[in-house]
Every structure is written in C-alpha cells, then in structure tokens.
Amino acid sequence: MAGSVSQPLPQPPSPLVQRVHHQLRARITSGEYPPHSRLPGEHDLSALFGVSRPVVREALRRLREDGLVFSRQGAGTFVRGPEPESGKALAYAPVGTIADVQRCYEFRLEVEPANAFYAAQRNNRAALDTIERALDLLRDTTYAHRHREDADYAFHISIAEASNNYFFLSSMQALKEHITVGMKLHGLSLLGPSGDLAAVLEEHASIFAAIRDHKAEEARDAMRRHIQGSYDRLFEGKVLDLAL
Question: For residues 69 and 39, is the Cβ–Cβ distance under 8 A?
Fold first, then answer.
C-alpha cells in the first residue's frame, strides 16, 4: 500500500542461542527436566553449555515463548506441567526382550550416522570438548581393560547434542535405557576371549576426529561402521526374524 512503512523482519537468533534453546528443549521434552521442576540458574546453565549469560537468557526467553517454561520473580525458571488433553513427553516402553535391543540398534543405525554428520558441520569448541571428555573416559576404561556403558552413552549423546537438532537429541535421551542395555551387552562381549576393546576405542576416536575436522561424510560413515560393528559383534549373525 502506498505510503505504508514495511516492518523490519525479526533477526534470527544467534547459533549459540539456537544451540542452547534446542538442547534445553530436548531435555525438557525427554523428561530430564520434568514438569514443575526448576531449571538450573543462569550461571549454572552458562557453565554447562559454555556460553555467556545473555545467551542463556535469550534461550530461556525463547522457551517461554514456546510455552515450555515460566519464570517466577526471585525464584527462577520452571518447567510447565502438561496442559489438559496435551501430549506426553517422548517416552518408550522399557526394554523387555532381546528383540527390543535389536530394534534399538536398527534405530541407531539410521539416526546416529545423521547425528555425526550434522555434528561435524555444526560443532563448536564447547561441543568438541564435551565429546573429547567422554572419549578420554572411554580411553581410560579401555586401558584398564573395562567397559563402561555410561561413558559410551556420554560419547554418543554428546554427538547428538553437537548436531544441534533437538528431534535427534530427544529421541536419543528417551531411548537411554534401551541404548545403555545394548551397550552393556556389547561391552560384555568385548571382555570375552574374542573381544577387542582397543579396536572399538579406535572406532570412537575415528568418529571424533572426523567431527573435529568438519568432515561430515567421514563422520557419518565412521559412525555407521561403528554401530554396525557393535551390532555384528553382539548378535554374531544370530539376529531374530522380526518379520510380521
């Protein structure tokens, strides 16, 4: 219309704000921060994500706009409870059979290579430090000829966080029990006479190196080889027929 003044488009959030917003959203959706719980304070969140407090403040503002949290003056920021008729947080039934573990590996074969691909494209120094700390813990346990599924899961979930996609991250967090059960069984197979902890450590190191060097295709392929190798070592060709 003649004489009208166009309104400026809103500026998109910075990559740091997006990352913190997505990761907090994923933690809320997965139930890590359950309804009615208080989120950590700005100072603690700044340290957790390796960002400044203004970045955290803006990410929290976006969460309030999403309707996921609310603030109380002097008390902090809290997760909203579910509204009537609203959906529940993403969740899966507990692991019941070895078929559940097999299905989880099939899911991981599709999702985790994508996590690694996007992590290689989108990582920053803080994200790399988190992945590397988990890798160091895996290295220490390997040298002690042990396997720790908590360290294994920490490595994989830190890559999901670095992908900066809360759909991937929420799914991985909701499947934590299933994933760690599979990792525990895989770890036990590695401690047997035919196991090779050192080779599996090298698989993890190759994934990290590709992500660190921003080699997205190599990271995706290295992750796929690792998950497929874990699947093959665990099931030794004795997979169940899951046909309907």
Answer: yes
- Cα(105)–Cα(175) distance, integer angstroms: 11
φ, ψ at 47 (rounded to 5°): -70, -40
DSSP string, 14-36: PHHHHHHHHHHHHHHHHTSS-TT
Residue 90: the pLDDT is 61
Tokens coding 99 = 């078929």
Between CA 101 and CA 95, with CA 155 as vertex, the angle to 5 degrees is 20
Please tell me the pTM assigned to this model. 0.71
Residues 6+ apart with CB under 8 A from 189: 195, 233, 234
Q: Are 200 and 190 in contact (CB under 8 A)?
A: yes
Q: Give the model's pLDDT for residue 147.
A: 87
Identity at 119, one-letter amino acid code: A
Residue 203 confidence class, pLDDT cut points 50, 70, 90? very high
Cα-based distances in Å from 240 to 2, 120, 160, 166, 235: 70, 34, 28, 31, 9
Per-residue tokens: 185: 């069984």
pLDDT in tens, 172-202: 988 888 999 999 989 888 887 666 889 999 9
